[in-house]
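Researcher: Please predict.
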Amino acid sequence: MQNVFIALYIVTSLWAFFSIILYGNRPARSISWIIITIVLPFIGVFFYILFGINRKRFKFFSLNFNAKRKLYSLNHSSKTIDEFAHKFNADKYGAVGKLLQKSSGFPAVDGNKITLLMDGKSNFDAIFEAFSKAEKFIHIQYYILEEGELLDKLLALFQEKIKKGVEIRILYDAFGSYGWKNKSVKKLKQLGAEIHPILPLKIGTILSTLNYRNHRKIAIVDGVVGFTGGMNVSDKYIKKKTRLGIWDDLHLKLEGAIVDHLHRVFIKDYFFANNNTLISSKKYLPNQSKKGDSLVQLITGGPDHNYLSILHQYTMMINTAQKSIFIENPYFIPNKSLLEALKMAVLRGVDVKIMVPKNNDSKIAKYSMFGNFEDLLKTGANIYILKDRFSHSKLMIVDEEIASVGSGNFDFRSFEHNYEVNTLMYDTAIAKELAKDFIKNIDDCNILDYNSFVNRSLKTKLLEGFSKILSPLL
């Protein structure tokens, strides 16, 4: 029996090895997968099958997975909002806007109103208020819909709105929302809500879908008010549920032409989930009007994109910076190109400040993050560790002139595997307000000192190194 296991180990490891060599698209990641399959017999190969295979290379993947999304071609330059499309001329951030339009598909649009929602209470108060005023429809899409006080309140409100004739449509990620009880789902469906999982975990498709999750957070009310950012529907944003305490995060209330773009993201995902298109009806894409003075651009990313749009956004913002870069992210695991871009920014005199939580909901993520800090500290970047709070915010501010808030983390998963959406605001007032809050939060941080950090224990360094090898699993 022992010989049989040895033979199986050799065969499966060799298969994984040749698959990694033939289809791996990044040498560093390929090496990580080779080590994982060798060090973790059978389990490593199993993880590689689920999370490591580059399925975009295979015909069945393109036919069964992304072809459906690509066949559904949205005209992002809607006639209803052409008048708001911004024409970058000699603008400082013109290159950013033009690149991201070609990379992601959406132009920057003028005439928007942005409301910053800086914590869970203000966010959900604003969302429930907007939902209560809905007259035609409410569309929501979340990575996590989790049982608890917020979800109960949300479902009760939806029941009331359905009785008044308001259409309710809900999309949720099947993996992220695995704990949502079927009982409440069935009840809402019976009342008339349309509820669909994105990338459902089915036996026939799990190998081609498990590694590709929809991480977006979107809410649309009557096509004229939108919410997006980093918060899921979970009580952890309003009360202490775990050792991490109440989660900090950022969310946005959007009004103006940008809502049309945000809604189109939902509509495309809705079609992908159930083959039903809403875009043919003007009811769901009403004419937009000027609501404020903010210039805003939506950046979406996902495995169906031709480009790594979230990576393009972060890289371009870093390369454009002249004075300062503030980054707050709970999963700061940048690839080599982003690390080099940050180091180059420091070397040319840009004040680079990075804020991450001391504790994390993933040990691998925590040690992978800290494993990247030595080079940055040596170059002169400032790294702040939140002592007692867990921040789930995905924030980047450049020169206190432009700012990004959204769902995209600083890691391979957000760049390559997840469907994400970020909101880039070319608005100095908004950027300064977010920067002020960032600076205030430094008071709750410990700053890393290079000389002390390099003398951390051998055990810690080994954990960091091992976690970086396992980072492809994140």
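Model: The domain at 309-473 is CATH 3.30.870.10 (Endonuclease; Chain A).
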